Every structure is written in C-alpha cells, then in structure tokens.
Amino acid sequence: MSTTLSVHTESPSSLDADALVVGYHSGGDAPEPASGAHDVDAAFSGGLAQTLSLLGASGAAEEVHTLPSLGAVAAPVIVAVGLGERPAGGAVDADVLARAAGAALRALAGRPEGAGRVALALPAGTAEEAGAVALGARLGAYSFDRYRTGPGAAKKSADLTLLLASGAAGADAAADRAAVLAEAVELTRDLVNTAPSDLVPEDLASAAQEIAAQAGLDFEVLDEQALAEGGYGGLTGVGQGSANPPRLVRLSHTHPEATRTVAFIGKGITFDSGGLSLKPAGSMDWMKSDMAGAASVLAALRAVSALGLKVNVVGYLAVAENMPSGTAQRPSDVLSIYGGKTVEVLNTDAEGRLVMADALVRAQEDGPDLVVDIATLTGAQLVALGTRVFAVMANDDDVREQVVAAAGAEGEAAWPMPLPAELRGGLDSAVADIANVAGERWGGMLSAGVFLKEFIGEGVKWAHLDIAGPSFNQGGPYGYTPKGGTGAGTRTLVRIAESYAE
C-alpha cells in the first residue's frame, strides 16, 4: 500500500476527493455531527445526521456508514464514523480519534483500487487531535498485498488529506511525527506478515542492513561462526536445529549532543516450531510472528533516526529459527550464555528467553541508562492479559510505570506486572546455574521475566515487554488494527526514546 498525507484548512464540502470522512457522536434521536462535520451535515437536505439515523447509525465508537453524497458535497462518497458520546470538555480522546480514523480508512481500503483520495474532516482543532487522526488514518489504510495475485493484486494507494481547524498550532509537526510512526508500524507489520520461508534469520539481518543504510544507522551482524566463537550459547543452541543459522544484529543511532543511551533488545525467532518440544499444529500456524519484537526494535530505530532524537539508541535483534532436527538442542542440554552463566534447557519451546539472554548481556556492555527488551515471550501472557494488552515488568518500579505511561501516551494498551522473588526458586537447576522453565506451570509469564532478570547486572535499569498476544491479531480487524501483524510496541519504544532525549 502506497500512502501519502497532506494537511489543508479549506472547507470539506468543496474539497475534491474520492471520499470524505466525517465524525458523529452518539445523540438522542439521531447522531450528532462532531467538530469538522457541521458544514457537511448542513449540505444535506434535512441534515446528514437524519439520513444516518434512517440507516440505523447511532454514533457509537468506530461504527462506520458509507453513503453517496449525491452532489451535496464535492466528494462522491461520505464515510461517517462514530466517536461515541460527546465528551463533556469538548476535546475528543486522541485514541478514540485514531481508531475512528482507522476504521473509516479500513472501510475504504478494502476496495480493489484502495482508499484513493480521502479527505478527513474529523475533529482536529489541536496538535494532539491532528496527530491522532493522521496516525489512525495511515494505519487504517494499511494492507499487506505481497502474495496477492489476480485482478486485485495491483498496488493500492491512499492519498490522505487532513483538514484542520484554523489556528491548530503545531498540527503540521504532529502530522509529520504521525507519518514517521505510521511508517515504523507498517514496517513491523510487513516483516511479521512475511512468510517464514522468505524471512529466515539471514533475510531479517539483510533487511536490517538495508534499513540501516537508508536511515544512517550503524550496523553490525554476527553470523553463526562469530556467535559460536564469542560464546553466545543461547542463539547458537536455539539455532542449531535449523538449516538457517542464527544472527545477532546490532544497530545504533548516535546523536552528537546526546548524553544518555537507551538499549532496545528484540526477540527475533523467525519461525518457532517449538524444537524437539514440538508445538501442536494449532499453536504453530502463526509462529511466523515470533520475530515481532525484533521487527519493532528495527522499526523503532528507523523512526528514532528519522525524528533526529537527541539520544543514543542501540538496538539488538536476537535472530534464530527454532526447528526440530537431528542437530537440534535436546531437553536437558546445558548452554553457556554470553558472559558465562549456564542454563539447563528443560523445554526447547522456551527458546526466546535463551536468545534474549545473550543479547541482554551484550547490550549492557554499551553502558545504557535504560535497557528495554520486547518479545513475544510466553503463551501465558495471553492467559493473563488477553490478546490486546501487553505486559510490562521491570526491576525498578519507576521504570515500569514510565514504560506503561509511554505506552498509554501512544494509545497502546499495557499493564504493569510484578516479578515475584519467590518464583526464582522454581527455576533452580540440579546441574546448571538456572533452568529455562519452572517446574510448575503457574505464573509462566512472570517466571519468564524472572529468568530474564537474572541476566541484568546490578544497578542496570531494565524493563521487559511481553507482547505475545497483541503482536498478531488472529481475529477480525478493528479500529486501525488489521488482521495479522499489528506492530504492537513499536510506538511505545519510540516514545521511550523521546523521553530520554535531550
């Protein structure tokens, strides 16, 4: 999908476009036009709100009705999207706006030619509102068409025009930032949606190298020989069962005026069969998404560079393919993680924490002020928080709250979770420093976090994001979230980097 966005202040009624998006609030007898929709509403005989009411519209959040304008306005198609109840203070919540814009664009993006030229007359009287509409529209217009054939396979496009209220100070800058964030999320989605045969570890490392060159990021990659010689036992052990060997990718954004450094580490299992601890078929068909953490780190680094943030950011992609074979690691094997700590592998399907341990130890050598890892780490995350909320754990209460706040500011649902000290005993091994899984099933998401904490040095501030559920939407699309890869966590990482920028 090719998408462009421009900003204008002209009247929505006269703007030349293929479709015009307006917002409506829940009302009494009929939905009520939101800010930006009044001129369009008045252009219809009896009011557009009355027509929408006849169609059963209520103005509920993300409700979408598409209807012909019949010449009442310049655009031939009107897309009316619900914004819920009119807020008492007047300003519409930014996330409500973003999801409404996304829902409207999804309704248009399903057409063979794509959304086309779309004007958005949703509430945009402030920079925050303008940024939310721009972001939601971009994300809602997304489609992954790499493998489509036939008449509908032609590249789709969406040319978006954001209509601003006069005097919306800072709106242009907010829309520009939204475009950068949207491109980052789209990159994450594209990588997650790619078939695993087309994105083996070497492919993901090559994609990272190409993006690094485009974005002006420093790039380094360790291949299987360098990993073995360097003592990266987690990556080597997980990757040894596959014909496609592992990689450790290091990217960095350096700003000459920066005084602080943030390290992001992403889990990059390009396909997770479970290894010899084989997953059931129903749990394996979406395991191409097990590299979503690495994809989000790569995308976030590109966005950080595009925004020119005055902070040093280092990103590590811990990339491997977890496959069963005659060379695969076995349950009861002992690995030596980078830095020397040993791990007894009791379950080869708990492989993400092994590759992450290598990368976490390595990342601390960069002397970061904050370490944040992001991973589709545990099925237990879905049990605890479902498919739309990711978990945040940390070794510092303030850091955990800062990360949750960063996610909230970006409209990403995150929830703080503990790291109970008593769970460490369940990871004791009879033969090694630690086991990769606990002896009991309870609190699996938390015990995985406790495992990772073992590889964080004294005094290092660290947070762990488990995005197992939110990273891949197996259900129907909603708001600006499509079916398949979602890009969850990408915007949160960028917001964290912004908070550490000078």
Structure characteristics:
single chain, alpha/beta, eight-stranded mixed β-sheet, seven-stranded mixed β-sheet, 22% strand
Topology, please?
Elements: E1 2-8, E2 19-26, E3 32-33, H1 38-43, H2 48-54, E4 64-68, E5 77-85, H3 94-109, E6 116-121, H4 127-140, E7 157-163, H5 171-193, H6 201-215, E8 218-222, H7 224-230, H8 233-239, E9 247-253, E10 261-272, H9 292-307, E11 312-322, E12 333-336, E13 342-345, H10 352-364, E14 370-375, H11 380-385, E15 390-394, H12 397-409, E16 414-416, E17 434-435, H13 444-453, E18 462-466, E19 472-473, E20 484-485, H14 490-500
Parallel strand pairs: 1-7, 2-5, 2-6, 6-7, 10-11, 10-14, 13-17, 14-18, 15-16
Antiparallel strand pairs: 2-3, 4-5, 8-9, 9-11, 12-13, 15-18, 19-20
Helix pairs in contact: 3-4, 4-5, 5-9, 6-9, 8-10, 9-14, 12-14
Give structural notes.
It contains 14 helices and 20 strands. It is an alpha/beta fold and 502 residues long. The strands form 4 sheets. It has an 8-stranded mixed β-sheet, with helices on both faces. Strands 1, 2, 3, 4, 5, 6 and 7 form a 7-stranded mixed β-sheet that branches.
Percentage of β-strand residues: 15-25%
Estimated structural class:
alpha/beta
Number of strands: 20
- The helix count comes to 14
The strands making up the biggest β-sheet line up spatially as: 8-9-11-10-14-18-15-16
Q: Which range best describes the helical content: under 10%, 10-25%, 25-40%, 40-55%, 55-70% or over 70%? A: 25-40%
Segments where pLDDT lies below 50 for 5+ residues?
A: none
User: Looking at the structure, what is the overall shape?
Assistant: elongated
Terminal Cα separation, in Å? 35 Å
C-alpha-based Rg, rounded: 24 Å
Largest sheet entry: 8 strands, mixed
Q: Mean of residue pLDDT?
A: 95
